[in-house]
Amino acid sequence: MATLYYDSHADLGLIRACKVAVLGYGSQGHAHALSLKDSGVEVRVGLPAASRSRAKAEAAGLAVNTPEEACAWADVVMVLTPDTGQAALYESAIRPALTPGKTLMFAHGFNIRYATIAVPEGVDVSLVAPKAPGHRVREVFVEGGGVPGLVAVHQDASGKALDLALSYAKAIGLTRAGVLETTFAEETETDLFGEKAVLCGGAAALVKAGFETLVEAGYQPEIAYFECLHELKLIVDLMYRGGLSYMRYSVSDTAEYGDYTGGPRVVPAAIKEEMREILKEIQDGRYAAAWIQENRTGRAWFEGQRAAEQEHQLEQVGRKLRAMMPFLNPVEAPLLEGTPR
After folding, report:
1. pTM, whole model, 2 decimals?
2. Is 30 labeled as catalytic in the residue annotation?
């Protein structure tokens, strides 16, 4: 059975007694820093001198230092920068300040799991991972609630690493909803698998395949967009609230019949063999090694894929339709140069 922790299991005083450096001020960084501050924690944000996020953090009332300065000052360092740059940041700013007795925290275990960062003895290494985007973490915290989260300990030099991690989790609201204990390996491997096979890779491929099938059969692209992408949120929201059974209860009997008869044909049992291979690549490090190498060699393939996907007809049609639906509060990713609008 999974071990879950709630507010009653966490002592907020532990993290309040620490000086906390939050490295990064993106989606998760701003949520952690602001919620820590609201919980009475002494916090500073670590950002390069040229970072455009410095003004945002300062405007929000947060103290801002360079990463080197923040790490030297802090007792606890939370790394909330992109995975791909963490190893370099560790060498330049974190490691020189990582003296025995300090704590290094992550919200994703990638660089510890795949050993691109090796932490010396005498330092606690833990993970506090909200299971929601940063903006949602912050919104729910401000409303008085919290999103679920994960907690893990990689290195327990003090014997109290878990207690401090739970205290940190409480300070950003996670123990209000519940924090599940895991390991760095389990968090990393399941997270990468979910992104690659289901949440991003699987869902995006399914949406595109459905859209292309309808358009190639002569149906209007706009109709195909609504059926294969726009309405997906309605279905996912039902699943989110009540699982597959509630979704099936809420849709029409015709839609439910289509679920039972179409799903196994679109995603046959053989697909699980490919999923198992994806999981093996994550477990044995091949996937991480390929991504690390892609970044080291300039990301030409990755950037090419990004550009090609932005030019897909599904995306072009979607941009036009969303602009006609202000009730969605539509947003668009920055377009690469030359991408049709």
Report:
1. 0.92
2. no
